[in-house]
Amino acid sequence: MDHCRVCGMELFSEPLLEWPNMPRAAQYLPEAQALATETGVDLVVRQCSGCGLVQLWGEPVPYYRDVIRAAGISSEMRAFRAQQFADFLEQYSLRGQRFLEVGCGRGEYLTIMQEVGAEAYGLEHLPESVVACRQQGLAVQEGFMEGADTRLPEAPFEAF
After folding, report:
1. Strands (E), 35-138
2. Of 27, 41, 122, 144, which is the most buried if we count CB atoms within 10 A?
């Protein structure tokens, strides 16, 4: 993979950073019996010569479509996010407007976004997370942004 994931231009030939023999996964760590055969990977960070995007070089991990968050957030973090989201809506005059969270997980942030005044929608890859969102009454579509041709029936949105 020598081309940018976003714009398709060539990546600069020299990496920005290299970390050899790193753990293969940050989530879904191997079971004890698999550790003997587990091998590390070399992480290489490169930059696009066209748009400047800094990105990991190589194939993504198998779970790259999955949103992985802690099971819950503390009351302090929830209050912080609520203020942060409210400030975002205020700054860009988005109160009451349609907001999309791409990769909404189990709806933790969608719920807060609704509470502070957005009309919140979500897109989520994992079916079990979509079910959990819908059980909370959240408007979530199952899917993944595969490219420029991806269309959502609720679109357009004023922010994401």
Report:
1. 41-47, 54-56, 98-102, 119-124
2. 122
> pLDDT by residue (tens digit) across 53-83?
999 887 777 666 776 666 567 889 899 999 9
Which strand (E) or helix (H) includes residue 77? helix 75-91
Q: 3-state DSSP call for residue 106?
A: coil
Phi/psi for 55 (5° steps) reads: -150, 155
Predicted confidence (pLDDT) at residue 26 exceeds the cutoff of 70: no
Angle at 63 between CA 61 and CA 68, to 5 degrees: 120
What the block records as the tokens of 115 is 């509470």
Other residues' Cβ atoms within 10 Å of the Cβ of residue 99: 23
Q: Are 2 and 18 in contact (CB under 8 A)?
A: no
Contact predicate 135/123, CB 8 Å: no
Let me know: does 21 contact 40? Beta carbons within 8 Å: yes
Residues 65, 28 contacting (CB under 8 angstroms): no
Distance between CA atoms of 121 and 108, rounded to whole angstroms? 12
